[in-house]
Design brief:
With 235 residues, the protein is of the alpha+beta class. The protein is built from ten helices and four strands. The chain has two domains: 101 residues, Beta Polymerase, domain 2, CATH 3.30.460; 116 residues, Four Helix Bundle (Hemerythrin (Met), subunit A) (Up-down Bundle), CATH 1.20.120. It has a four-stranded mixed β-sheet with strand order 3-2-1-4. The relative contact order is 0.11.
């Protein structure tokens, strides 16, 4: 977490209150700097009691300012729609629930939990799609190390997020990004070495990370292992 993201969050809340007034119910910051990546834009979930085209236009007028300030476009949802969507987006909301900071209003996750079977099913769908994407992407790379490196670098964050959701399936509730990722890897039998390399790719650094192209065989093995485990997971 950085010292600057709370100021950005406060600015966002002020803008949203100007748009929604008393209809702004809750704002939580998640991902990015809240979750240990200070260079990422601030991402947020804003819940409102009503959402009209006029509200969207009001947000659109502020979008350029948010971009300049390093604030990602907030995910704006009516409260009732949010509560009915946990089963539709179990992975996304579980990841927000894992590491977030409430910056305005009520706690939107109080008393809410993504059903475990829905989380497992979503993990299975995601990891098997990820596996197909990796195989197809490798073929389409035509053997180019540069293209394979881009493939691995782009895919790594989705895989580590899946590991954190598998940790949740195993009743691990830590909000720490690396600890949750490693817990999911341990529960799935994914080697810690490949996890360390993939986590390093997520964090821009002046210290060179492992060559992403050389990681591909081990990464593919890890994805196949996770797919097997999630497929047979007993809830």
């Amino acid at each position: 977490m950085t010292a600057t993201w709370p100021a950005a969050a406060a600015s966002l809340v002020a803008d949203l209150r100007n748009v929604f007034g008393d209809r702004l119910w809750s704002v939580v910051a998640y991902g990015g700097p809240v979750d240990g990546n200070p260079r990422a834009p601030l991402t947020s979930l804003a819940l409102v009691s009503g959402l009209s085209i006029g509200d969207l236009e009001g947000c659109a007028r502020r979008a350029a300012h948010w971009e300049r300030a390093g604030i990602g476009t907030p995910l704006v949802l009516p409260v009732d729609e949010f509560r009915r969507s946990l089963d539709a987006f179990p992975l996304e909301f579980t990841e927000i629930m894992r590491a977030h900071e409430r910056v305005y209003g009520a706690d939107p996750f109080a008393g809410l939990e993504v059903p475990r079977e829905q989380l497992r099913t979503a993990c299975e769908t995601q990891i098997k799609g990820h596996l197909l994407h990796l195989r197809e992407g490798f073929i389409e790379a035509h053997g180019s190390p540069t293209a394979v490196a881009r493939l691995v670098t782009a895919a790594a964050p989705a895989f580590t997020a899946l590991l954190r959701n598998v940790a949740r399936l195993n009743d691990v509730t830590t909000s720490d990004h690396m600890a949750a990722t490693r817990a999911g890897a341990l529960a799935s039998g994914v080697p810690d070495g490949i996890v360390s390399d993939l986590l390093a790719l997520e964090q821009p650094s002046d210290v060179p990370a492992a060559d992403p192209a050389r990681l591909f065989p081990g990464y593919l093995d890890a994805v196949e292992q996770l797919a097997r485990v999630v497929d047979t997971w007993k809830v």
